[in-house]
Amino acid sequence: MLCFDDIKVEYSCQGYKATHLGISPDERSSVLFFESEVKTKDVHCPFCGHDVYMHEIYDTHLNDVPIWAGVMHRLHFFGHRYKCKQCGKTFTEEIPFVYPGTRITERAANQIKSFLKHKISVRSIQEITGIHWDTIRKMQTEYMKEKIAERKSELEMSGYQPRFLAVDEFAIH
Ligand SMILES: [Zn+2]
């Protein structure tokens, strides 16, 4: 069994380094903290290419796959916001691991899709991962679209040509 006190964090990715793992007093959620290690001298303005200076530190989080069953897990990032010395525009570092259009990690999205594949309900997935209902529903919609597209291309490959459309039942009330 995992013992919280024995965990040593040695993890870095895309300019970020994990600093420590925390757990809430009620043990309902755990958080892995990351800090940006990017050097300002290595960053250039994405708009004009000139040098920048660090404007401020910002923080944000992503929901992730739980380490312990039923304990919601988050990644918390402290990143840099820069300002261009030439054009004055500001921009922030990209957050690693993010699944586009959500506040969850790529691997959390993959895990949710895997649960859906095994026909686990949205409510159960929510209870297992602690991830918001709307996010899981979004994953479900994406998953269904992917499956429909797969099926469509399978049918096209097999030369399927339907000639009749049958409607089975019709409910008034
Ligand atoms: Zn600029």
Counting DSSP H or I runs of 4 or more residues, the number of helices is: 3
Distance between the termini: 54 Å
Strand content: 25-35%
Mean pLDDT: 89
Number of domains: 2
N-to-C series of helices and strands: EEEEEEHHH
Distinct ligands: zinc ion
How big is the Rg? Answer: 22 Å
Report the major sheet: 6 strands, mixed
Which structural class matches the secondary elements? alpha+beta
Count the beta strands: 6
Helix content: 25-40%
Could you say which overall geometry the principal axes of the C-alpha atoms support? Answer: extended
Low-confidence stretches: none
Fold topology:
Blueprint: E1 12-13, E2 16-23, E3 29-36, E4 52-64, E5 72-84, E6 90-92, H1 106-117, H2 122-129, H3 133-157
Parallel strand pairs: 3-5
Antiparallel strand pairs: 1-2, 2-3, 4-5, 5-6
Helix pairs in contact: 1-3, 2-3
The site of zinc ion has 8 residues, from loops.
Question: Would you give an account of this structure?
Answer:
The protein has 173 residues and is of the alpha+beta class. The protein has two domains: 97 residues, no CATH class; 57 residues. Helix 1 crosses helix 3 and helix 2 crosses helix 3. The model has no long low-confidence stretch (mean pLDDT 89). 26% of the residues lie in helices and 27% in strands. Strands 1, 2, 3, 4, 5 and 6 form a six-stranded mixed sheet that branches. The relative contact order is 0.12. It binds zinc ion.
